[in-house]
Amino acid sequence: MEEVRIAAAQYPIELLPSYEAWEAKISLWVAEAAGQGAQLLLFPEYAAMELAGCDPAAASDLQRSLELVMALSDRADELHRRLARRHGLVIVAGSGPVRDDRGLIVNRARLFCPDGSMGWQDKIVMTRFEREIWGISGGTRINTLDTPFGPVGISICYDSEFPLIARAQAEAGARIILVPSATDSMQGYWRVRIGGQARALENQCYVVQAPTVGLAPWLPSLDENYGAAGVYGPPDGITPDDGIFAIGHANDGQWLFADVDLTQVDEWRRNGSVLPFRHWPEQMVGQASMPAGIANDNAVEPVERQNGSTLPLVEGLSE
User: How far, CA to CA in Å, does 184 sit from each of 55, 132, 163?
Assistant: First the structure.
């Protein structure tokens, strides 16, 4: 499958009275996207934390909210698995907290395929809020996830601002990098968007961003949410001059749809006006501190790298 219709959620965080109300909301959103012909659905970072609002006492407490959402994660997984099968599409569920095999809480995005298989990606690099206040830990593996239209990568929010994560996924075959995000200011949104567009440029691939939107004062973890969904590519050939295939109306709840041709990624990488994906290794030259204009005979020899990442890479992860 080389032509894919993508739906990126500008997902509004709402106060819902029960798990059943949340399940009904997610089911409605998925059905709407499926009705528009979408084949790949991307929900935002930490969208699963909306579930904490079902218990006002837990929602107002950062740690209790994590425990509540983790307690509901199996039910939420089963819902997304059913919806992916029912509608015959791929769903990246809103990320949320999971306790990993180290016993640490990580921020995990799960991908569900129509055949019932599931893969995941943990956020690698934590923001200051996550590491200093909330106690969320970084993941330990960069994955590519198998789908009916080939491997994809997920770079959760802040991870999109670090080039080696998406680079490892692109080198493992990903032609789409998915960026679920949650930012509490327009500056935060623009940091993630600029990172996403940079990853599209250097990897000559599609990057899709999906943010949370709206104000949720009852939920300290997601009290302010700003942004716009977007689908980006390298500004080259068929791409618009600014590299933006589609962009949402900022801060409004909506699906953003875009049709992408994955053969275009191969064309960019083979015959682009520039070839940053191919030329990436050429930047790995010796580095040393030296005054401007003065040669240094003690320059460091370049370091050989296999995949541009210090983290293990797992291809085609599924369960």
Answer: 22, 16, 23
